[in-house]
Specification:
The chain is mainly beta. The protein folds into 3 domains: 2-36 and 86-130, HSP40/DNAj peptide-binding domain, CATH 2.60.260.20; 38-73, Chaperone, DNAj Protein, Chain A, CATH 2.10.230; 137-227, Sandwich (HSP40/DNAj peptide-binding domain), CATH 2.60.260. Helices cover 11% and strands 39% of the residues. The strands form 8 sheets. It has a 4-stranded mixed β-sheet with strand order 11-12-18-15. Strands 1-10 form a two-stranded parallel sheet. The protein is rod-shaped and about 105 Å long. Bound molecules: zinc ion (2 copies). One zinc ion (ZN) binds at residues 41, 43-44, 63, 65-66, 70.
Length: 231
Amino acid sequence: MEIPFRTAVRGGKVTIQVPVTEDCPSCRGSGAAPGATVTTCPECQGKGTVTFGAGSFGVTRPCPMCGGKGKVPSEPCATCAGNGQVRRQRAVNVTVPAGVDTGSKIRLAGQGDRGAGGGPPGDLVLTFRVEPDSFFTRDGLDVECTIHVNLAQAVLGSKVKVRTVDGQFVVLKVPPGTQPGRRFRIKGMGVEKSGRRGDQFVKVQVDVPDTLDEPARKEFEEFAAAAGMRH
Ligand SMILES: [Zn+2]
Ligand SMILES: [Zn+2]
């Protein structure tokens, strides 16, 4: 099942539709139309199985006439065509544990399809696929994000608010002279799972102004000349 990035990180509840086989509600699983008489299957004499071949080469199969039930109705149920079973989507509420990742599996006991021949239901095994997030990427318990700073912030230094996976904000100190692409680590702000917590890595992208008006361009040229920046 696909789950949002936030749900995978923090955990939460998600409802999914699971296809299951159930007794037909019209005939309660008998396969007979209302008022129809039910008689022993003439094909298998009520055994529910038929054997092809002979001796040790014999192969036993469910009886094709009664579908293994051993009984046949005089008129089949219209809802299930005499099958006695219908396929239905069942809503299952899933509690997603915090910290799951793509490929993580959980097993919900007894939430699977019914067993053959009226046996107990099986388990429902779910494999998660985590939807990508617009801000965070994930590497195990660590998360990474990219923030944008302007040229002045990179050159002179700044303090920048950065969102965490908890939806909180931490203040990141960008020191003077920060190079584009530099990664900062915010310790302990990654994904928490089973008492362990990863880190948040913040990559800095420096935005260069794409246009300057004439006075600003002139001032920048003067600055470049004074700083010895050849261009
Ligand atoms: Zn039916
Ligand atoms: Zn039969």
